[in-house]
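User: quick one
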Amino acid sequence: MGIGRYWRIYRGFVSTCVSQEMSFRLNFLTLLVLELVAFVMAVAGILVLFEHVEKIGAWSRPEFLFFTALAYLIDMAFLTFFAVNFWEFSDDLRTGNLDFVLTKPVSSLFMVFCRRVRVGGLVSIVWAIGAVVYFGTQLPAGWTAERIVWFTIFMVAAMLLKVGLEILVGTLMFITVEGEAINLLRINLQAVQKQPDFIYGAWFQSVFSFLYPLLLVTSIPARVMVDERWPAAVVAFFFLSILYVWWMVRVAWRRGLRRYESASS
Amino acid sequence: MSDDFAIECRGLAKKFRTYSRQEGLWGSVRALFRREYRDVAALAPFDLEVRRGEIVGLLGANGAGKTTCMKMLAGIIVPTAGEARVGGHIPERRENAFKRKIALVMGQKAQLWWDLPAIDSYRLLKEIYEIPETEFRARLDQLAGLLQVSKLLGIQIRRLSLGERMKMEIIACLLHRPEVVLLDEPTIGLDINAQETIREFFRQYQRDFGATILLTSHYMADVEALCPRVVLLVEGAKRYDGPIRVLADRLGHKKRLTLRFDREMPRGNDGLFAGLDPEWKSANEVELSVPRERLKELCARFLRELPVQDFQTSEVPFEKVVGSIMENPDLLT
Amino acid sequence: MTHVFATWWAAVRIEIGRLMEYRWNFLFRMAVVSLVPLVVKIYLWSAVFASTAGAQIGGYTGDSMLAYQLWGAVFILFVEVRTTVDNVSTDIRHGRITRYLLFPISMFEITTCQYVGSLLVQGAGALVGVAAVLAFTNAMPVYPLSSNFWIALAMVGLASVFWYLTHFVVGLLAFWLEELWTFFVLFQVAARFLAGNPIPIDLFPAWFRTASLYLPFQWIFYAPARLVMSPEPMPELWQGVPILAAWCLAMFLVMRFVWRRGLKMYTAAGI
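Assistant: Done. Structure below.
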């Protein structure tokens, strides 16, 4: 009953979002253009860099292009299904409109972070998948059925990790109330995950792999396709990180709700 | 705590932490490094018992603690002290079973999607509250019919008037047929007709479904129309809990006496009205507040000594009673 | 005139007070939000230069690339000021500009004062950062006696004006359009890339470098960063001042035109 009910509620969310988005058609189009321009610029940056160098770390141009496409796909998926909710959460906290969420017999985490879907983003996801496939086929390691299955599993796991990490930062809004800076922090932290982990120094990698495992989000699924093999310990750590992050989310969310004071009316 | 009551509070209290800073640029910079915090008691330890099916008005000036109390009962904020039970549940635990039993209508906030017709939001609520389709349709038809908005369900919320929007918000809150309805200023900003429609609606709703209703409103007409019992909060503390008529009678059993004269009256006659709280409506009409036991004597005297063209007696408006008590809570003792 | 300045200063002070009201927000904005992308860029370039075994890339060494990124990050704080200019569009949509039509002070003046207030706050934070870096490292070479330095400052001032005017004009599109935030973000994303952030314009192909001369963007990040790092005169970059000034004038004229046309459409909905 639980999962079926939440699925029906989510379908209701998507339905209301489709109706709403269709009344802002220009916005719908400009968003698609924006996302495409951002991707083209990221790719252009890689191409320009590799006019001047042969390798960065252990990777050359095909690996970096694949990584960029992968980061773009994760970004688009997050933007489509979750991102808008963080801005609405900030507004709802400040205005006290979170009150209505808290009176509904549904998980408040689900209501806050899944309520809005940017349906137009599905188009960008299709482009992103195309880019991943295109740049993936140019990798030396090549595609096998086994790799693709593992890659898909790791991508889903990576999304779970990313959403948990973003919500964890988002709960800081219970402290700040005015959430614009927290949202800016979240967005800027995303820049960390858009580069491969090996470019960072040792202490930076440690912090963002063990304490706040942001680097695992893109780097681990990328290595599934780029590297010949990956240690079981790394895989186990990756999945344990997801559990750890979501446990932290649960604690932070409950603490945050106890702190919530609504807004004066 | 007992199961006989739909709402029960024992020592329920809430403090908020606020800070003050000096005005001006230097004050802003100082506040960056050091702030002087203080605790403000929004609600002093508060006891309340509301039986199932009762309608109770919660009165008080702005900042008295009414909305804070409502939010604690709805489980939105956590009390600093004391405990509450609503529908048999402890609100701050926010159990889903509790949330299915309550509804919170806030006149100053909206939960419906601004850019969509109400019916779209209702369909979502249907899923959230797991309302079967036939029941959903029946309830929606009934509620929309009672509130006279059936033809507006397909129109975007932002295109509706304030009164129509409020009616849609009310429907949204009642679709799941809650046992306990918390109404926080539901008629604020509405025109007289819309206010009356909503009052009549809640009267009917309570009769038909036996819901327990707790209402806050600054419009005494709401309270007089709906609430046989009122609770008065003054600066976060409960100062009265009892029948509305008894509260009205607390002001020394007074009656309103309106005198209209056949000419403009010089204000020198105010000596005759000393102690009767005269309020001049125009140069030839005055309202007085007269003790009941002196009504006959004073009427006879005014009719004899003054050029009275017409006169009328009525109860002291409830706004005046409450307003007087809020200014001077000692009137209750 | 004194009264006008007093009103402006009051508006500036109120904006400063508003920003400081939410302390954690303010601290996060200044310290963390600016540093994270900078740290990522520094690591990326370190990795790039590590792969070249000490060779230069496009005339940059590892140290000069670091200085370029640091100075660019400082100048961004004086240009990309997040302020209430972002609210121009919501004020128009919700009918709130009606009060400006009744006040003896224009919306442009008020919004500009608010922008100046935010700029002062953000700029003060940037200067604290610069002072810290200069005090403890020599990562940011600077030649305050050179003409390059003062031209760079003038360029940053004009870039700030240009950025503000562009955002204001985009905000005015709310007279016609419902949702505008995508235009803001599109502008910012494109502008940063074209400004040489994170890749200096020198590294791009010749056709790109030529086209960039006439656009306003490279004068926001690339040119001032290059100028301030170099004691030798760079006249090929000095031309950025008149180019940017021309862009500012153009945006100002566009702003006035759009405002007048928009007011004719204004219906004061929402009040």
